[in-house]
Design a protein that fits this description.
Layout (H helix, E strand, L loop, with lengths): L7 E4 L7 E4 L14 H4 L2 E4 L2 E4 L7 E5 H5 L6 H4 L7 E5 L9 E5 L12 E4 L2 E2 L10 E7 L2 H4 L10 E6 L29 H11 L9
Parallel strand pairs: 8-11
Antiparallel strand pairs: 1-2, 3-4, 5-10, 6-7, 8-9, 10-11
Amino acid sequence: MSVPSNATLQVSYIGYNTQDVPVGNKSFLNITLKEDTETLDEVVVVGYGSQKKVNVIGSIASVDSKALESRAVPDVSNMLTGQMSGVTITQESGNPGQDAGTIRIRGVGSFGATPSPLVLVDGLPGSLSDLTPADIDNISVLKDASSAAIYGSRAANGVILVTTKKGKEGKARIIYNGSVGMSQATELPELAHSYDMQNFIIRRLGQKPIRLR
């Protein structure tokens, strides 16, 4: 790798703290990453309550509300794109009201039944399309059989556990989230005016077209 002497390399890996290393005049770098203990202390929701991530044996991924609210997309399912390993979201349509993504957890785990994962909102079956990012506190995804076995055959394609925000003691808080976007067409068709349409019909009839003075 060829980099300038005043450059700084940023080294990162899942489960470890990101480290910035100045290059300087060094031709060989020995970099040791430290384990991210804060990630292991995160609380994740499981089928029978909540645990610290360091104590969880099954394959569980989680994302909090801060990561979701920072993404400006119309549907909660599309907000999970790229947030968790093994979770694939495909958006099949961009029409209003039909922009929800299709979620697959480690591919399709059952045949003959719906391949979609089981979605539970505060312990009850629900849909991500009925939620807004401001209502969500945490989302946990149970990806393997050991973590999703408590839900039986309905969890053959994984489980998505959604925990919504609850009221807290203290002063009332009002939060407003808004977004504005603009788009421009890459190419606009040339439309025919009434004058052009009239001459087109006249030519088809074999007559002389009309000319404007």
